[in-house]
Hints:
Two copies of one chain form a homodimer. By secondary structure, chain A is of the alpha/beta class. Chain A folds into three domains: 1-80, Archaeosine Trna-guanine Transglycosylase, Chain: A, domain 4 (Roll), CATH 2.30.130; 107-261; 265-433, no CATH class. The first copy, chain A, contains 15 helices and 19 strands. In chain A, the strands form five sheets. Chain A has a seven-stranded parallel β-sheet with strand order 15-16-14-13-17-18-19, sandwiched between helices. Chain A has a four-stranded parallel β-sheet with strand order 9-8-10-11, sandwiched between helices. Chain A has a three-stranded antiparallel β-sheet with strand order 3-4-5. In chain A, helix 1 (131-145) crosses helix 5 (237-256), helix 2 packs across helix 11 and helix 6 packs across helix 14. Chain A is globular, with a radius of gyration of 24 Å. At the A-B interface, helix 1, helix 5, helix 8, helix 9 and helix 11 of A face helix 1, helix 8, helix 9 and helix 11 of B.
Amino acid sequence: MRAHPADNVGVVVQPEGLRAGAEPVDAPRLVEDVPLAHKVSLTPLAAGDPVRRYNEVIGYAAQDLPAGSWVREELLEMPTAPPLDTLERATRPASKLEPLEGYTFEGYRHADGSVGTKNILGLTTTVQCVAPTVAHAVTRIRQELLPRFPNVDDVTALTHSYGCGVAINAPDAPIPIRSIGNLGLNPNFGGAPLVVSLGCEKMQPDRLYPAEALTNGLLPVVGGAPTVLRLQENAGFQATVAAILEFAEKRLAELDRRRRVTCPAADLVVGLQCGGSDALSGITANPAVGFAADLLVRAGATVMFSEVTEVRDAVHLLTPRCATPEIADALIREMRWYDEYLARGGADRSANTSPGNKRGGLANIVEKALGSTAKSGTSALSFVTTHGERAPRRAGLGFAATPASDFVCGTQQLAAGMNLHVFTTGRGTPYGLVLCPVVKVSTNTPLAERWPDLIDLDAGPIATGAKSIEDVGWELFQLMLDVASGRKQTWSDRWRLHNDLAPFNPGPVT
Amino acid sequence: MRAHPADNVGVVVQPEGLRAGAEPVDAPRLVEDVPLAHKVSLTPLAAGDPVRRYNEVIGYAAQDLPAGSWVREELLEMPTAPPLDTLERATRPASKLEPLEGYTFEGYRHADGSVGTKNILGLTTTVQCVAPTVAHAVTRIRQELLPRFPNVDDVTALTHSYGCGVAINAPDAPIPIRSIGNLGLNPNFGGAPLVVSLGCEKMQPDRLYPAEALTNGLLPVVGGAPTVLRLQENAGFQATVAAILEFAEKRLAELDRRRRVTCPAADLVVGLQCGGSDALSGITANPAVGFAADLLVRAGATVMFSEVTEVRDAVHLLTPRCATPEIADALIREMRWYDEYLARGGADRSANTSPGNKRGGLANIVEKALGSTAKSGTSALSFVTTHGERAPRRAGLGFAATPASDFVCGTQQLAAGMNLHVFTTGRGTPYGLVLCPVVKVSTNTPLAERWPDLIDLDAGPIATGAKSIEDVGWELFQLMLDVASGRKQTWSDRWRLHNDLAPFNPGPVT
């Protein structure tokens, strides 16, 4: 399958791969075996010739290659990243897509207008010191209290490894602090957070929620201002657990009175991500997600894509799509910050690709990035948020800067206010989050068949032509509405496969 | 209480503090109220005068202060850190302490000579992707299998946020990789690790345990070479869990046949740490731990202290104590690496102290470091290990480089092979680790009284003279032998307060 008519490589879509001598339609006779998702040269390539996929140069041939060759990672020399100072800015923002009306889901609406897709009691923590105590309390709440409050979906502690033993005044410290504060404000929590603090830690509760945030309506307060409980003020472990349970019981009673109401699809805040990608990601699952992203934008929702290192090499395709030059500038600023962050650690964006990406046919980060950004669909970029910042609601398509690490990206998208997550995977990963549902989409049918109890939707039939990108995009859109309404359960929620939160901390530990 | 006769400040040891006008023994009349653990000027101080505690300069008076003043943080200007290029090296190593014989504990001895204080089934993970699946399996193992194997203490997954979405070839990547590999070899696991891998992650199992490590006896192999289980090779979630349970059942049967045997105290590998320190730490708990450290060294054990940023300002007192110039050079190298690491992140060692430290009377990192290093006792430093490296056994006192963050330090000491942990605290923290027992020692009696179900030993009576440093040191030594033998349970084990592992990753995420 050729991603664009101008490409001089195609990708094998047959699940078993193709053998030497095979004669695929519209392609030369293969001179060697090529596995599923790997690339075949469609024309002869001379050493130094550009290799084109998605109508972009993904590398240069390292040696002469006859047509029908397996274009493996080591036969491609990687191009440099697009320079950041000469990018087109807002030169081709998409014309406004036709509005899409009448699609709704059943959600929990807050006074500030945000909508939850779950009704969860959340316990925010300032420091890992309190985590086992809070975990103990959460287990008891789940066993002893939750059965009495059937309208509450779950109780969870927002634990993390930040909070102390870190350089709390370092230049990058605002990133994890903002992230953890905003995690506690995720719309899937039904009210102002309970903040469990040790007492002596560096990240004091008032670093998470400064006084002005408590009074100007930034916090979606249901039960009053955030409640702070400090372990060092309590008489030991059992007294602390009793205090947490006492708080929880009151809050659970409030949450239990809430009911789902019909909300327009515009109230979805969807985070898009891919993990364990392969070379089919960019022609099956990610374009289908991109089509669904366009549907969401047409319906007036907020849709975020993320993962700076997977956008970096496609940024020249995105800055022209920005709605304004200022949005393009913000996107460029995020790319530059990450370039410098990686350089400080002796790395660059090429550190992104994993062994599984490469076995899945992705030669390098350029090819991966081009496939990854297919998730963004065709609409204009109408906002950019920095790490850990809340995204605007009903704001269309935006870029929420995060690392590409699955858990860090997911955590940061939750901090941005995500209430539904779509995750595409080619190699397969049993990823899940406790704070919001994760819809997992496979890029290839062999994975969906091997993992029937983990994959929620298979985009593999796009590769064989059995379904179109539009077909799968509409299926995904409908599935999102069902999952957001609690009518369908994702596999990760079914098995409670919930990865730990991993707020992004680019600063040093002390 | 004055820490050294040459000091011009003392510390208030009365639990309620002292009021203005109080006339303590051997000290001037107080000109203002001073809380517990805070400093009082014993002589008049002129602006710029050195302020001495532990017979070291902890700062310079920021203004004129009469005798009897409260010497608060803001009245002290911090000295610069000791320069690293002019330190004395191995000029005063301690004379060998008299051997201490006849002290034993009951432990699980391995073929390689190492000894466990617990008998735990450990599941190593290469990446966070597999963590919820393994956690699900651990829950089922604990409920369904463990009751049939009464000699096995526990089952645990070594989960962490490393493994993918990281720059696996960055200069600092060997630190987390080495740490996670060595965690799986902790002597409290009864055999070669089961490694649960996703399949496509960057930290492939052979980065943790390269072929040569499997064959040259570096791994304490009981049941053969490490077993690797790759989720992507299994048919979904339920099949993977079944495979983990099948492995676990076989390994539990092996572990269940093990019995404790009498071992000399020399087989202890003790990690020392402090957290939530106050100004009493350096005159009560830490000196008592230092006395116990000397007992352990005399008994032939390995004792590690750690926490680079809490040693940095006392390094000039430690390099002379090194047994050889090479050991001093290694210590200096660790200080220099951390200086550079912090500088890359826009911080320095002054980022260490927390609000609680300051409320507890510690003016700055200089004062904190002088108190912290009291844990090291009086013996010569006979080894230095770098981050995540295994410490030698029966090797006396050594410095194991780690960050000072409680969880990162504890994790890294476990990677070094720690089988018993001693943790001192003034402000109080319910810290615990699943891999080895943690004995928590309070620096002050009010904390021990407030947290009777968390503090294992109170060193507070040293401040009032009710007990001597030697008394508490011996008590602690005996308690260590009891806990290591499984005869006494620590409070953190009693409540299962086990903090998550936090391997040190100084490199970037991607």
